[in-house]
Design brief:
Blueprint: H1 11-34, E1 81-85, E2 100-103, H2 105-120
Antiparallel strand pairs: 1-2
Keywords: Membrane, Transmembrane, Transmembrane helix
Protein name: Membrane fusion protein biotin-lipoyl like domain-containing protein
Transmembrane segments: 14-33
Length: 121
């Protein structure tokens, strides 16, 4: 026959676990609030200079790579060379500003050859 098994009452266990949880949270908060707020630095890492009234320059040296938000691929069908650069590396440019002058020697020779043919006629 089936026997009736009494249900396990874990209410006391849950209460003890909740009390332990809140005590640990309270200890953590107390520890963080009363912990001394100091930083131990070795004497070798300190740099002491004379105090003077001057412009404050706060900078950090970083190594980084700049990536443009929008990039444009230029496809050149005929070969040529860059004749003149109008901007320097890292300079600020505006939209529509020419960056370099590109020359195609073959096109220039064809243009001058046709111009000579037309002037000889």
């Amino acid at each position: 026959m089936d026997t009736i098994r009494p249900r396990k009452n874990r209410k006391k266990q849950y209460i003890v676990l909740l009390i332990l949880f809140f005590l640990s949270i309270g200890f953590l908060i107390y520890h963080l609030a009363t912990k001394p707020k100091i930083l131990n630095v070795s004497a070798k890492e300190l740099l002491i200079k004379e105090v003077k009234n001057d412009v404050f320059q706060d900078f950090m040296i970083l190594q980084a790579q700049a990536v443009p938000l929008e990039s444009m691929l230029i496809n050149i069908v005929e070969g040529g060379s860059v004749q003149e650069l109008f901007t320097e590396n890292g300079a600020m440019v505006e939209k529509g500003m020419p960056l370099a002058r590109y020359t195609i020697p073959i096109q220039n020779s064809i243009f001058y050859h046709r111009k000579l043919q037309l002037s000889n006629k």
